[in-house]
Amino acid sequence: MADHLTTLKRYQMHSFRNFFLLLLFTYSISLQAQIKNESEEKPYIEVIGHAEQEIVPDEIFVSIFIKEKYIGREKLTIDQQEVKLKLSLKEINVDLKNLYLSDAVSDYVRVRWRTKDVLTKKAYTLKVSSAFQLGQVFEELDKLEITEASIEKVNHSKIDSLKKEVRIQAIKAAKTKAEYLLDAIGEHIGKAVIIEEKENAYLDHRSINSIQSLNIRGSRSSEDAYYIDGEKEDVVQFQKIKIQSAIIVRFAIQ
Questions:
Q1: What local confidence, expressed as pLDDT, does residue 167 receive?
Q2: CA quadruple 91, 96, 101, 107: dihedral, nearest 10
C-alpha cells in the first residue's frame, strides 16, 4: 500500500512538473509574440547613409626582374646587377629596405635551345612613395638596361584607418538624413535600433593609370616634368584610390 502511494505521488509530481513546463513554454511564446508585435507597431524610419573619399596612393609596388646576361662573352651575374641597382636607388634616395625578393627561388631560363648553359632570373619588389619617385626608378632601370619591370599594385599606408573614417561618415550621413526628413513632418529621431552595412556597398577602388605609369622612359628634364615616349609631360600621377561605404540605419521615431 505504501509503495502504491509513493508511486502515485511521484506520478502526480511528474505530471505537475510537465504541466508547469508546458505553461512556462506557452507564456514564453506569448510574451515573445507580444514583444514582436509591440516592436513592429513602433514607428521608425530607415535610411541609407553614403560616404566616399579619394586618396592619392603613397605606396606603389614595382615588380623588377633581373636575369643574368652576356655582354659579349662575359656573363653579367645577378649579384653584379643587384649591386648596381642598389647604388642607383641610393642616389635617388630610395630606402633599400623597400627592395626585397619576391620569391626565394630563382627561375632558370635556357639561353639557347642548343646549349646547356642556363641563366638565373630573380624577381624583386620595390616600394616607392610617389609617382615622382617612381619616374626616377624607371629612369635608373633604363640606365641599367633592366627592361622587365612593371607596377604590381598601389596602396595607401593608412588605408585601414581611412576605411573606418568613411564608415563613420556614412553612418553620420544616415543620421543627418533621418533628422531632416523627420523634421519636415514635425517628428523627432529616436534611438538607432538597426545598423547594417549594405551588402556589396563597401568599395575600395585601387586603379593604375596605365598610360602614364607603365610607359615611363627617357630622361627627366626637371623635377616637374618627364619625357614620356619622346614628349614632355608633367609628373605622372596615379588615379586616386576611391573608398566608398553605405550604411543602413533604422531609427525609432519619438
A1: 94
A2: 20
